[in-house]
Design a protein that fits this description.
Lysozyme-like, Rossmann fold, 2 domains, four-stranded parallel sheet, binds zinc ion
């Protein structure tokens, strides 16, 4: 995927990398302007930053290198995100994108195309699965103080359709029976073009979106009775790991 045109701005507000793989892109709304955000992130006392910021005119600014940690998602408050790692600062394993405007604004076309291009490039560069648990809004991490970030104007449905190659229907999806299989699931997803990953909810149901995919790869659990299912599951976690390794050709 081609790298979009990115203007380096920089920020003193970042940390050096910790031992966590990046698993998600977190989208934000600036509640302000791109120029104002450039200044705020350049100001050490603000103690905030993101990796990227996108203007309404489609300009992409970068404040923190991808290998470093930006300070955008640190506070966890009543989260609604199954991939959250308990007790670990979410900044350690996420990439953050700010968008110029106010919560609820309809995103201009130039800004949409820029964020789409940036998402595509990041997905290909860092191997992020195209799923609603790997590309999220800030409100999934803090549903109390950030419930309007990025807000109702953010074009989630259009973005996922475009990231899935223009398909409303998922071609392939991976279903994990436990969150502990996340890394095996991520490898299976990468082998299938960074397809969507679902983690089975606590009520043991199978998400409808997973069942609607054309092919469903199940890791670590019993059949879902999906008509085109690949079961990578054994009698225990060791046999499941062996089944996944064989599928991946490792
Ligand atoms: Zn935010």
């Amino acid at each position: 995927m081609d790298k979009p045109n990115i203007i380096w701005i920089g920020s003193p507000n970042f940390s050096s990398p910790k031992d966590y793989k990046i698993i998600a892109i977190v989208n934000h709304i600036m509640s302000g302007t791109l120029i104002g955000t450039d200044a705020w992130f350049a100001y050490p006392a603000s103690k905030v930053s993101s990796h990227f910021g996108i203007g309404k005119n489609g300009e992409i600014h970068q404040y923190v290198k991808i290998g470093n940690i930006a300070w955008a998602n640190g506070n966890v408050n009543k989260p609604n995100w199954p991939l959250l790692i308990p007790g670990v600062n979410p900044n350690y394993y996420t990439i953050s994108i700010e968008h110029e405007g106010e919560s609820g604004d309809i995103m201009p076309e130039a800004q949409y195309q820029a964020t789409l291009a940036l998402h595509r490039w990041l997905i290909g560069t860092i191997d992020i699965p195209v799923s609603r648990d790997n590309i999220i809004g800030h409100y999934r991490i803090d549903s109390v103080n950030r419930s309007r970030c990025p807000g109702t104007g953010f074009p989630w449905d259009r973005l996922f359709k475009d990231l899935q190659g223009g398909n409303d229907v998922l071609q392939v999806a991976v279903l994990l029976y436990t969150k502990e299989d996340y890394w095996a699931g991520a490898d299976v997803s990468v082998k299938n073009g960074n397809c969507a990953i679902f983690v089975r909810p606590e009520d043991l149901s199978v998400p409808a979106e997973a069942m609607s995919s054309q092919k469903l790869i199940v890791v670590g659990g019993p059949t879902t009775k999906h008509p085109n299912e690949v079961l990578l599951s054994g009698k225990d976690k060791y046999q499941t790991a062996a089944a996944v390794a064989q599928y991946l050709g490792k």
